[in-house]
Design brief:
Elements: E1 6-8, E2 15-22, H1 28-38, E3 42-46, H2 62-65, E4 70-73, H3 86-104, E5 110-112, H4 120-125, E6 133-139, E7 152-154, E8 156-157, H5 161-170, E9 177-183, H6 200-210, E10 216-218, H7 221-231, E11 234-237, E12 240-243, E13 249-253, E14 256-260, E15 265-267
Parallel strand pairs: 2-3, 2-9, 2-10, 3-4, 5-6, 6-7, 8-9
Antiparallel strand pairs: 1-13, 11-12, 12-15, 13-14
Helix pairs in contact: 5-6
Length: 270
């Protein structure tokens, strides 16, 4: 197709925000209170083998605490997956998925690599486990939408989020922009933090900065993945564009936002 159009997030929004946290620390309780108060959506990566241990949340509170957010896998015991056999990798991920699905009643299709470590062998194993994306610990400092979901790179760690968040709000582009932040909630209490000034006051200021913007799609990682995958079902044929997915999809054409309902087509004639 020679007609230029730009993908949009749900609602015709040109920006998306996702914030993700690892390990299931007891500090997630305070973090979720902030997120819910400011309308921020989160993805939370839990080690089922550590739930109920000191300084971690309990199994009994998983469903209620993370309601409205995504619960995803961080493996059962947080090992370096590259040091395990194929069978052990499968067990670490599959057992974690099953335990978390039993607790939440929701499918678990995302993974954060322990220590951010993975290799080509690990990537090859993930599709058979139903893993739709794997988040790394690498930060790009950009607002690019990842092209490789199994090697998902964030925009930044939470310590760099304030400056990047301000840039994100000023950012202007026809291309869709994603601010993806990751961290550990215990760092906000100063534990294992490289910068103690990045504390709870800092995070609440960040939430206030990013809340309630009409141009931002507030999402979990799996919601974003499912939407981006559905966008690939937009089929061009001449000047026609057809939505062969099962959900509404949005584009921007000639500075107008258009919604394509499932099974519908639109004629893009300049």
């Amino acid at each position: 197709m020679n007609v230029l159009y730009y993908p949009r997030f749900p609602g015709g929004k040109c920006k998306a925000l996702v914030i993700s946290y690892d390990d299931g620390s007891e500090h997630d309780r305070r973090l979720l209170d902030l997120f819910n108060r400011y309308g921020i959506r989160g993805s939370f990566y839990l080690n089922s083998g550590k739930l109920g241990q000191p300084h971690h949340i309990s199994t009994q509170e998983v469903q209620s605490l993370y309601r409205g957010h995504e619960v995803a896998s961080h493996t059962v015991n947080h090992p370096d997956l590259t040091q395990l056999s194929d069978a052990a990798v499968r067990q670490e991920i599959r057992d974690d998925q099953r335990a978390l699905e039993d607790l939440t009643g929701q499918p678990v299709r995302g993974l954060a690599y322990p220590f951010g470590i993975y290799d080509a062998r690990i990537l090859a194993l993930l599709p058979e486990l139903g893993i739709a994306y794997g988040r790394t610990a690498t930060a790009t400092g950009t607002f690019q939408v990842p092209k490789h979901f199994l090697a998902w790179e964030s925009s930044c760690h939470q310590n760099q989020a304030m400056a990047l968040g301000r840039r994100f709000l000023r950012h202007q582009s026809q291309e869709p922009a994603l601010l993806y932040i990751w961290g550990h909630s215990y760092e906000l209490d100063g534990f294992m933090s490289g910068d103690p000034s990045k504390n709870w006051d800092y995070l609440e200021t960040l939430c206030r900065l990013l809340q309630g913007h009409a141009e931002i799609y507030y999402a979990t990682t799996i919601e974003l993945v499912d939407y981006l995958n559905a966008l690939s079902a937009l089929i061009p044929a001449g000047t026609e564009l057809s939505n062969t997915s099962t959900i509404p999809l949005w584009i921007n054409w000639q500075n107008s936002d258009l919604m394509l309902t499932p099974g519908s087509s639109v004629s893009l004639i300049p």
